# Entry
Amino acid sequence: MLATITVDDEKCNDPLSCRKCLLICPTHVLGLGTDVGPQKFRETDPNHFILRGVRFEKCTGCMDCVEVCPQNAIQVSF
Ligand code: SF4
Ligand code: SF4
# Structure
């Protein structure tokens, strides 16, 4: 069964600096993206970065990301 991973962007307000969940996930499920899409020839404003589940099929449900998040911003369910 695929995991459902939700991230509260209000709580996860600086994923570019934090990255704790990205680093701890053993199967690299999570990814950093932006809410503005690719911007040619322009540096993306750090405020536009968002953390999302990407490779849902790799999630084992270990909950390491949930436990490591200092903002309590991630929820994982099946
Ligand atoms: S529950 Fe575990 S495997 Fe799934 S995204 Fe979080 S750290 Fe990765
Ligand atoms: S650990 Fe929490 S606050 Fe840090 S990047 Fe991941 S979701 Fe955001």
Notes: Residues 20-24 form the longest helix (5 residues). The radius of gyration is 13 Å. DSSP finds three helices and four strands in the chain. The pocket of iron/sulfur cluster (ligand 1) is lined by residues 3, 5, 24-25, 27, 29-30, 59-65, 76 (CB under 6 Å).
